Amino acid sequence: MPTDTAGMRTPLRLLFIGGRPALRTALAAWPGTELVSDAAEADCALVDVASLTPTAHAEACHYPYAPSLPLIVVSAIGADRCADTNPYLAEVARAENTAARARADHCILRCAPMDVDLVQIARQIADFSTVYGCFTGGPVPWLALGDLVDVTARLVSDPARRGGRAYELTGHDTAPVTTVVDQLAGALDVRAEYHPLEPAQLVGALCNSVGWSLDMALRVPGHQQWTGAGHPTSPLVEKALHHTPRPLDACLAYAAAVVTGPRTADQLTSATKGTLS
Length: 277
Known about the structure:
Blueprint: E1 12-18, H1 21-29, E2 33-35, E3 44-48, H2 54-61, E4 71-76, H3 87-100, E5 106-111, H4 115-128, E6 130-133, H5 145-157, E7 166-169, H6 177-188, E8 193-196, H7 199-210, H8 214-217, H9 219-227, H10 236-241, H11 248-260, H12 265-271
Parallel strand pairs: 1-2, 1-3, 3-4, 4-5, 5-7, 6-8
Helix pairs in contact: 2-3, 4-6, 4-11, 6-11
């Protein structure tokens, strides 16, 4: 985390480009971070290429140069090894390569599915008591936003850890989507069920019932199958921050807190402290 001349911690100022709207909203509310629009005010450019939205994805690939800034690329775990089998990861891998070629002072964070990605699942539970999708049943090492922020701050303060390197970030606890649905329903004090659909059924439902464009809907099965895949865990967060990653309970508490109503940054932090030292 940057410090001022008196050694006091100051906000991590991010030039956030492209990416998931939920991640932008979460970073704007997170204590210790500040989103800025002027590169001269930023500590780094944080480019999220793991978006599902075509417009945001295109923006992430065509961001303006900020030559004095280190570049932190938020990507998706598996983009380096599973792009041939998953169209979502193939798109992320292309965007990752485009971003990485922009400048030498960069690093790539290939992140597991995050607590901010759980917010949409929590909204479905709160609104409909049902989650429809084509998630696979693998154990997911859910990553907390707070750990992504803390690792980013560490990379900003330590240039030797960038240099074009790629890191995998995951949480410590794993749970399949079916378990997460049950636990989120409990946190929201409602009953909910997960109903699996075939990819074509899901695309049809999104187009016919929700009104999504076909271009957007076709991206969803690959993303959901990636989300539910059995990703391996990584020790990177613990090695970088010298404490275990925030637990699954903290990720669930965060998603539930966002859905149940407006919360201040301090309240969200309280809900996600977990086992941090």
